[in-house]
Specification:
By secondary structure, this protein is mostly helical. The protein contains 4 helices and no strands. It has helices at about 1-30, 35-70, 75-100, 110-135. It binds protoporphyrin IX containing FE.
Amino acid sequence: MLWLKAFHIFFVISWFAGLFYLPRIFVNHAMAQEQVVRERLKLMERKLYRFVTPIGALAVITGLWLWLGFGFSGAWLHAKTTLVAGLVVYHFYCGHLVKEFAADRNSRSHVWFRFFNEVPVLVLIAVVILVVVKPF
Ligand code: HEM
């Protein structure tokens, strides 16, 4: 179980590296004036999203395996899984935004993306408190 939890934490950290960085690229993309800069950011967005999606899947799979394979239970786990479900929606919405930017169809401002970028931070704080402290 400890090996599985170690890999779970590794995949979680790697997933969050992408969830923190991709919206930051969106901030820069929404501010970019030159087409050559936009084309480079499109490439970065596409590669980063393609790289971090299987890692996110492995974070969820190892979490579910821990939950269902080792008899963990409690309201903390239901609250955690609900937040993680929201994170998965956030991840796929980033995928939709990658396509919008690729087609030069983005209409949102860099300010909007700065707030959007903070969502994973809040989820991470809540999930880590839930899983380590198990407050309920
Ligand atoms: C559906 C998705 C997930 C499920 C079902 C799940 C379930 C679990 C379970 C059962 C444990 C073991 C808890 C323990 O040893 O006390 C665990 C550990 C952990 N999970 Fe998840 N997890 C999921 C996703 C995530 C995500 C997205 C994060 C980060 C935001 C996360 C962060 C952690 C951390 C930090 C630990 C280690 C806690 C410790 O050693 O005390 N998990 N997870």
